[in-house]
Each structure stands twice: as C-alpha cells, then as structure tokens.
C-alpha cells in the first residue's frame, strides 16, 4: 500500500534517539521511582518520552500518541496513533542488565502499519511495514521452522502483580517447561517478539501487557511470517492485554497447553 515514507523514518529516528539516550545514561546516575511494588520508572524513561512527543507534535500535529509514562487514549482512536515505549525492559535498565530497547508502532484505526524496535546494547534495529516484510539492520528476517514444542525454545514474561498470582503465572510457566526444549524470561516483551521474528526464539506468550509493550513487535512477527493472537487464540489487538506469538507452526500446540492448564 502507499503510505507516507516519513512514518517509518520517524519510527526509526525515534527509537535510535532513545537508544542514544539510554546508552549515555546506562550505568550512570539514574533516578529510579516506583509506579507499583515492582514496577519501576526512571528519569530516562520520562526524558525519552517527552522528546518523542515533541518529535511527533512537530512532524504530525494531528496524530495521537499513546505512550507508557504520560499516557494517552485508552481506547483505539480514529486515524493515526503512535504507540511508544521509551524503555521496554526498564527493570533491566535500572539494574544495569543490558536487555532493553525502545519500541514504537504507528497504528491507523488500531492496526499497526509501521514498527521499529531498537536494542542499543547490540545495535540491532528491527523494522517492519505492513505488507513489506520484517528486517534486522536492513536484512530480511523470518520466523523459525520448529514444528514440535520439544524442539522449541520459548519465552515469556511475568506481570507486575505476579506476587499475588504466583500459582497461576508460574504454573503456566511450568506447564511449558514440561513440554518445550527450553523456556526463557528476558524481561522485555518487545525484544521477545523481535527474537521470535528473527527465528532466535520459536514462540512467546504473556498476559497483562499494555499496547506499548507489544504493538511494534507484533507487527514485526507478522511480517516475518509468524502468527500473533491473544492467549485464547482470538484476533490480535494491541490493547487486548495478552499475546501469543509464534512461528505459526507451534501455535496450535501452544494454545492447547494454555487451554489445558486453564481448564484443569
């Protein structure tokens, strides 16, 4: 489809700028505050998001923005909306663990059209345009060819209220541990999704997510040939809170494990 080339350029510029800020502050004096018991925010998150909002306002003044720290419309707005996570993996960033990124998607009427995710510690830029494929540093990427869970390496994340839901969250984690070759927990949903897109991981599931966690990475998975739904197998929506992303070949097996666990 024909789309404004500035959309992808802006997405790339935004995450690249965010990466520069993260790396300049990583390991230095970072102010850390709490949004919840284990949910952190830093002054770096806030600085990156304010710069992003200024970028969009200057370039596309009629576009909406939904981002992690300063919010936006909870429901899907009509027309263009930039969905931005200044630092996905803030807890890792705050602890000096180099697994974090910046993620952005431009949705139009709730459907992501362009996406960019940048991991500054590895200098890896993942991009996608709807109908145009997915790329890592300009080279095409594809999902894996694993067909059986026993041959698959999976990844997940835990919600911020995990302390109140240990049996549920860790129970499902254990169900997958008992079926897969390996299960990982990296601490950044956007990186998890990009690694599925690149074939490094075979599938990802997580509940209680926000749109900014998954809007960009989910388009990248889809454009890399993967499948993305909610955890019940329904159509993907960035504001649906749960996500299951796979190479497509494992999707049915993943849904069965989830259904069996929830139904027991």
Word description of this protein:
The chain has 7 helices and 14 strands. With 264 residues, the chain is an alpha+beta fold. The strands form 3 sheets. The chain has a 7-stranded mixed sheet. Strand 5 (101-108) and strand 6 (111-119) form a beta hairpin. The protein starts with 5 loop residues before the first helix and ends with a helix. The model has no long low-confidence stretch (mean pLDDT 92).
Quick structural gist:
By secondary structure, the chain is an alpha+beta fold. It is built from 7 helices and 14 strands. It is 34% helix and 25% strand.
Sketch the major β-sheet.
7 strands, mixed
First-last Cα distance: 46 Å
Quickly give the structural class.
alpha+beta
> Which segments are poorly predicted (pLDDT under 50) over 5 or more consecutive residues?
none
Q: Roughly what fraction of the amino acids lie in strands?
A: 15-25%
Instruction: Note the run of SSEs as H and E.
Output: HEEHEEHEEEEEEHEHEHEEH
What is the strand arrangement across the widest sheet? 3-4-5-6-7-8-9
Count of β-strands: 14
Using the alpha-carbon principal axes, give the shape.
Answer: globular
User: What Rg is obtained from the alpha carbons, in whole angstroms?
Assistant: 17 Å
Q: How much helix is in the residues? A: 25-40%
Q: Give the mean pLDDT.
A: 92
Number of helices: 7
What is the fold's blueprint, element by element?
Layout (H helix, E strand, L loop, with lengths): L5 H20 L6 E3 L5 E3 H17 L4 E4 L12 E9 L1 H6 L5 E8 L2 E9 L4 E6 L4 E3 L2 E2 L12 E4 L9 H12 L4 E3 L4 H9 L5 E4 L4 H13 L3 E3 L13 E4 L4 H13 L1
Parallel strand pairs: 3-4, 10-11, 10-12
Antiparallel strand pairs: 1-2, 4-5, 5-6, 6-7, 7-8, 8-9, 12-14, 13-14
């Amino acid at each position: 489809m024909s789309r404004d080339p500035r959309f992808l350029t802006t997405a790339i510029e935004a995450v690249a700028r965010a990466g520069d800020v993260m790396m300049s502050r990583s390991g230095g004096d970072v102010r850390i505050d709490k949004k919840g018991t284990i949910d952190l925010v830093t002054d770096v998150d806030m600085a990156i998001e304010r710069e992003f909002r200024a970028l969009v306002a200057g370039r596309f003044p009629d576009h909406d923005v939904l981002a992690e720290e300063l919010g936006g419309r909870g429901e899907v707005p009509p027309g263009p909306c930039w969905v931005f996570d200044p630092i996905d993996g803030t807890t890792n960033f705050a602890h000096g663990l180099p697994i974090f990124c910046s993620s952005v998607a431009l949705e139009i009427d709730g459907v992501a059209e362009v996406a960019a995710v940048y991991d500054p510690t590895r200098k890896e830029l993942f991009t996608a345009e709807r109908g145009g494929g997915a790329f890592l540093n300009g080279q095409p990427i594809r999902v894996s060819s694993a067909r059986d869970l026993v041959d698959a390496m999976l990844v997940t994340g835990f919600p911020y209220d995990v302390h109140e839901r240990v049996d549920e969250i860790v129970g499902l984690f254990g169900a997958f541990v008992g079926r897969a070759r390996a299960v990982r927990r990296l601490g950044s949903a956007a990186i998890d999704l990009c690694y599925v897109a690149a074939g490094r991981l075979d599938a990802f599931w997580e509940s209680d997510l926000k749109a900014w966690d998954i809007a960009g990475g989910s388009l990248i998975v889809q454009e890399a040939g993967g499948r993305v739904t909610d955890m019940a197998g329904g159509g993907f929506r960035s504001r649906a809170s749960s996500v299951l992303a796979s190479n497509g070949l494992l999707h049915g097996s993943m849904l069965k494990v989830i259904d069996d666990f929830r139904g027991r």
